[in-house]
Every structure is written in C-alpha cells, then in structure tokens.
Protein 1
Amino acid sequence: MIRRLAIIGVGLIGGSLARALRVAGAVGEVVGCGRTLANLERAVELGVIDRYSQDIGAAVAGADMVMLALPLGAMESAFRAMRGHLPADAVITDGGSVKGSVVADARRAFGRVPENFVPGHPIAGTEQSGVEASFAELYRNRRVILTPLPETDRQALRRVETMWRQCGAEVTEMAVAHHDEVLAATSHLPHMLAYSLVDSLARMKENDEIFRYAAGGFRDFTRIASSNPVMWRDICLANRSALGQMLKHFAGELHDLADALSSGDGDRLLQIFERAKAARDRYVDRV
Ligand SMILES: NC(=O)c1ccc[n+]([C@@H]2O[C@H](COP(=O)([O-])OP(=O)(O)OC[C@H]3O[C@@H](n4cnc5c(N)ncnc54)[C@H](OP(=O)(O)O)[C@@H]3O)[C@@H](O)[C@H]2O)c1
C-alpha cells in the first residue's frame, strides 16, 4: 500500500496511474503537482488527486512514492526541485517514453543516479492529453517496462513493480539503451511517419479535397498525429540517436519501394506486402 503518492504532472499518464491505484485500493493520499491551476483543480474535482501544490518540494514532502509524469524536457528541472525535500523512504519513478535521457537528467540533477530511482515506461497511452483524458483502465493488460540500473535498490524496484501490477499491468525489465532502441522502432518512428505524412499532405495545394476524401485507412494510420506535439518533440530529441538510425534505415526501404513501383515490379511489391501482413497478423493483435 502506498501511503502518499506524489504525481508530478497530472495528465494522461500520471492521472491514470492515480485513478488505477485508487480503484485497486492501493493508495492512501494522492498529491498532485503541475503548472496550471485549472488542470490541478479539475484533477481534485474529478477525484484523481486529493490536493495539490505547484511547488515540487512541497508536493514530494512526506511522499513514499513519487511519479514523474511530465514531458521529457521538464524532467531535469523537476529532479532538481525535489532535491532536499524527499523523505528517506521515498521511491522515485517516472513514465517518460525515453529512458537514457531521464537517467542522464537524474544523474545531472543529483550528481549520481539515486538508488531509490526506478526508471519506467508504461507502454500504454492515447493521443489525448491532460487529466480529463485519464482513466483507471489505461494500464490494464498493458506492459510496463522498468529499466533498473546496477545501482538501483532492489526493494525500490519491487515497490514500483507492485504498484504497476496493482494497476493491472504486466511488468518487464530491460536495459536502458535496449529500451530506447526498441521503442525508437515500435513507437517513435511510427509517430514521426504519421506526423510527417499528415503535414506533407496538409501542405499540398489540394489539401481540403485530400482530407475530405480520407477514409478509414488514413484515419487509422494517422490517429497518432493528433498526439501532443510538445511531448513528441521532446521524445524525438531525447532519443535522437536511436531514432535517427531507424529513420535512415526506413528511408532506404522507402527508396526500394519507390524503385519497385517505378519499374513495375509487382512481385517485389507483393513480397513486401505479404511479409508485412504475416508479421502484423502474427504479432500485433496478440499484444
Ligand atoms: N501519452 C502517451 O501516450 C504516453 C505513453 C507513455 C509514456 N508517456 C510519457 O509520459 C509523460 C507524460 O505524458 P502525458 O501523456 O501524461 O502528458 P500530458 O497529458 O500532457 O500530461 C503532462 C502533465 O505535465 C505537466 N507539465 C507539462 N509541461 C510541464 C513543465 N514544463 N513543467 C511542469 N509540468 C509540466 C502538465 O500539467 P501543467 O500544464 O499543469 O503543468 C500536464 O498535465 C511524458 O514523458 C511521455 O513521454 C506518454
């Protein structure tokens, strides 16, 4: 049981965590922290948090679990602001989509990565943001990846694992760099492609007509381009090394596709489409 949970950034990810733990009866008090009063007051009205402070030091005082659910660009200053205010038994974790950058932020802010910091990433989300978008079932049957370091305290790790299991999630562990490579391929690259496709169509002269006739496939493929642009700018920059490599590799694949098209190589196209369909049918609907 978490006695007092401090949520730094009460949006989709932080709000959904608080809601899920409340439903599970796994948390006593929830204290929120953020910049916008209206969002924090709404979070109290919705019963997501019990009270709030706009001061990070005050929000983490007395907490035994601290969850950072901010855009990646705000993590380092949040770590700095909590220095000297954390109770000795507090565990810190986060939900940031890139782990190497958050670990580096913690190292810069504290001078070393604290043993009671357990980096994490719930593989769950929607294209909505803010506390209004949060819901208790977000993590049910979804994966959460924890990326502990050799110095991470084992008991802190167990406490974060237990927290996510209480939300209905399946918890796995991965090395930091491996996490960032895998997520560059499965999440960050698709977001870049969706943003770039929609943007390039929107800049075409006939864009009204293009969007008017956009059907289900376009909607499915581009839903994630409605995600929060600031959050995704931060994710892309924070994972730019792994993501840059994926993007270059994929650009080569696109050139191959264009070559197959211009030479009328139907066999090549069929081979690519059949392989892709088989892979998607095998993996995606199972997770
Ligand atoms: N959305 C997803 O699908 C998803 C999935 C997995 C992981 N994540 C990760 O989870 C984290 C949070 O994402 P989210 O989807 O929950 O975003 P969100 O709904 O926009 O919530 C983020 C919250 O952080 C606060 N905030 C924003 N900028 C801040 C700043 N500079 N300083 C202090 N507070 C700030 C905002 O509240 P105020 O405006 O009141 O400050 C907002 O409520 C990100 O690191 C993201 O990479 C997201």
Protein 2
Amino acid sequence: MKKIVIIGGGFAGINLANGLAGRKDFHVTIVDRNNYNFFPPLLYQVATGYLEPSNISYPFRRLWRGKGNISFHMGEFQKAIPEENKVVLSTGEMSYDYLVFAAGTKTNYFGLENVQRNALPMKTLNDALELRNYFLQIMECATLTGDEEERKKLLTIVVAGAGPTGVEVSGMLAEMKRSVVSKDYPELMAPHESHIYLVDGGTKVLPPMSEKSQNDTFDALTKLGVEIKLGMQVKDYVDDRVIFTNGERIETKTLVWAAGVTSSVFEGIPLSCYGRGKRLLVDEYNGVKGMTNIFAIGDTCLQTSDNKFPDGHPQLAQVAIQQGRRLAKNFIAIESGKTRQSFSYYDKGTMAIIGWNKAVVDIPKPRLHFKGFIAWFAWVFIHLMFLINYRNRIRTLYNWATAYFSKDQSLRMIIRPQAKQNRAA
Ligand SMILES: Cc1cc2nc3c(=O)[nH]c(=O)nc-3n(C[C@H](O)[C@H](O)[C@H](O)COP(=O)(O)OP(=O)(O)OC[C@H]3O[C@@H](n4cnc5c(N)ncnc54)[C@H](O)[C@@H]3O)c2cc1C
C-alpha cells in the first residue's frame, strides 16, 4: 500500500481523496488544521447571517466513515523533510510515499501592518462568524451612542477588494440594510449616517469577468446603494480611518479585507520551487518542480504548462476540484504502470451574485453572458449542487427559501464562546 499524505482538506484535497477511496493499493491521510471541510464561496452568507456555519461545513471523520483506506489527522503542517519522506505536524510526525500540498491560500495584507491588525478578513469560517458578530455588535452600539460622529463611523462599512468576495459581501450588506436594518433598528433610520463603500485600487469591479458582467455589476450595486470607489488603494487603517494612497480618507469602525490572497511557504521545500504569489511551481502532472514524490494541487500551486492558461490557472474551486480528480487518476496510473495524463483545465464559466435576483454569469463556450434573475437562479442551483452532501443542500435551500420569501433573516444572535483555561484542548 502506498501512503499518501494530503495537507489540506479543501476542494482539491477531498477530491483527490475521494478519487482514491476504497482502493486497496493506497492509504490516504488528510491532514487539516480544522476537523471539518467548508465551502468558501458561501462564507459571506454566514457573515451576513443568511446561513448557519453547519450549512456550509461538514466533519471530515463523518465524510469518510466506512472508507477504510482514508483517515483524517487534525493538525497543522510545520515542515517537510523530503530526504526522509516525512512531514512534521503540530500534532506529530508522519511518513509518506507521496506528499500532496492542497493547503489553499491565506489572506494577503500586502505588508500593511495596521490593516492586518485592525481589518476583518473573510477567508475562514472563524472569520465569517467573527464578521457576523461584529456587524451585529456595531449595530447595537450605534443604537446606544448619542454621539453623531461616532454613530456615523459605526454605520459606515468599507469593503476593500472588488473581486467576487467584495462584490458579494457589499451587495448582501446593502440588501440587509434595506430589508432587515430598516425594520429591526428603527432608531437608525437616518440614511445619510450609514454608508457601504466598495473600494479597489484597480479600475474595474470583478476584473476576471467580462466587460458586460463588470458593467452590470457596477450598475446593480450602485442601485442597491453601495458606493463604489475605484482607483483607490488602501495605504493604512488606523484610528478608525481608512487612508488611501491618493490622500482620501474614510472614517469607519469596519474595514472588511477582501483584497487578495497569497499562498504559504512550506518549510523544507526549497525557495526555488515557488512562483508568483508564493504558489508552488508544478509540472503538467502537478509534481512540484525539482521534487520526485511531492505534488501540489488547487490554489497553492502554479501550473504554466496548460496551453490555454500560460500564466497559470485562476484560483477557483473548479480548478482545485479538477486537479484533485486528475491527480487521483494519475496516482492510480503510476501504480498500475500506465501512462499519466497531463492536467488541462476545463473552464465551465464564472459567476458572481450581487443580491437577491441579481447575479452575473459568463460562459466561455459558446460565449454567453447572463444577468438578473436567470443568472441568480443558475448561481443558486450550482452552489447548492456543489455543497458537500444532501443534508447541507436541504438546510441551505430551506434557509435561502425562507429568507427569499420573507425578505428577512433570523440568524442574528451574537454568540461568542469563551475559552476556559486549563482544559485539555
Ligand atoms: C470568501 C471566498 C469566496 C470564494 N468564492 C468563490 C466562488 O464563488 N467561486 C469559485 O470558484 N471560487 C471561489 N473562491 C475560491 C475557492 O474557494 C478556492 O479556489 C478553493 O477553495 C481552492 O481550493 P483548495 O483546495 O486549493 O484550498 P481550500 O479550499 O482553501 O482548502 C485548503 C485547506 O487546507 C487547510 N490548511 C491550510 N493550511 C494548512 C496547514 N498549514 N496545515 C493544515 N491544514 C491547512 C485549510 O484548513 C483548508 O481546509 C472563494 C474563496 C473565498 C475565500
């Protein structure tokens, strides 16, 4: 039995493991710092209180119950020792025949220390819950303060980064402002006091999508009341003030940071193995350049051998899923002495949601663009289908249906569990 250790149980890691499930020639260990898999494209729905964390997450151990050749190990990667075919984790050491990095990315603050300290990221389920608690808390604070300037700062939200995450968060916050805040916070009805800004250093919203999608998104967000400021690069965030490189400032207690991601450098893997954005350079079979039995898939790798994507693939769920599946087939090919197939990304299209009944979809072949209700419906359907199992799909559908028809949501409890000292973990 060949031992495969996968660092990271996201889209790439679980699709690789699923592709090898039930086989007698491989034993797969998934290592993850969390004990659950989660669905990042719907994090903002948790952050805005439309979905519960359990709707978009699932425990690893339950996922592979009864699949004898797959195990889960909770722990954080610390270092690889390729000469000994060994990894060191926060929870012990592990040997491997093949090591696969599928650890995704982390928030990139571009070296802005105050932003890192004071802004709210949206990359993990913890981040999403923190954001939800924070949004609800500032609303309560705003109802309590008698100071008009303070209230304005509490009711101003700046979202940095006009990619899909920034667009989705700002759009959903604007929907909430319309349908929930206006009803449940009658004390906060002065519209001039509350603002939602979407800011970006570039000149477009949704830069990877078509021009039509960009224009439609700009118009739809503006109609929802989001104030879009492009060509504005954040320089600092200090003393409740977002400071831009052009000298402009916005006073706010909330900066949501959705401006970029970066991969991690994995100790033990030589620096020559990394490319743009610290992504591990891989060949057409996802083998890390210069290493014999170490692979990388998903957001953390950079593959420039796919003719259609000479600058590397976009960091999207579909790329990670397809790479995980392909690598599983290639491992099977290696062990059965067959020829491996190189990875080629099949682009099924991109989409982004802006608000209720508002979304944009670009399909590459045939080149098509949708917007409005049809695009929104397609978005809902596809995201439901990609959730990990029926339980999560049904729960999410239920939460969305009730929110859609009632134009309301009820997941608005501020819950902050407190850690006790002297506990085992
Ligand atoms: C808010 C948000 C919205 C997005 N929306 C979309 C969208 O609409 N459509 C789309 O296609 N893509 C979207 N993406 C991108 C998409 O989620 C990624 O492309 C995809 O998750 C990449 O899969 P992955 O398996 O490479 O990494 P991930 O899914 O990020 O999984 C990485 C896993 O590795 C684990 N891990 C990381 N470091 C370590 C370590 N040191 N030790 C142990 N475990 C570790 C993590 O806990 C995680 O489980 C979005 C991303 C975010 C953050």
